[in-house]
Amino acid sequence: MTTRSMRLALGPHGLATEEPVGRSTAWWGVMLFITTESTLFAALFGSYFYLRFQHGAPWPPDGIAEPELFLPLIMTGVLVPSSLPLLWAEAGIRRGRRWQLRAGLLATLVMGGTFLGLQGMEYSEILREYTFTSNAYGSLFYTITTFHGAHVTIGLLMVGWLLIASMQGSFGALHERVRIVAYYWHFVDVVWVAILCTVYLSPRL
Question: Rounded to whole angstroms, how far apart are CA atoms 152 and 148?
Answer without folding.
Answer: 6
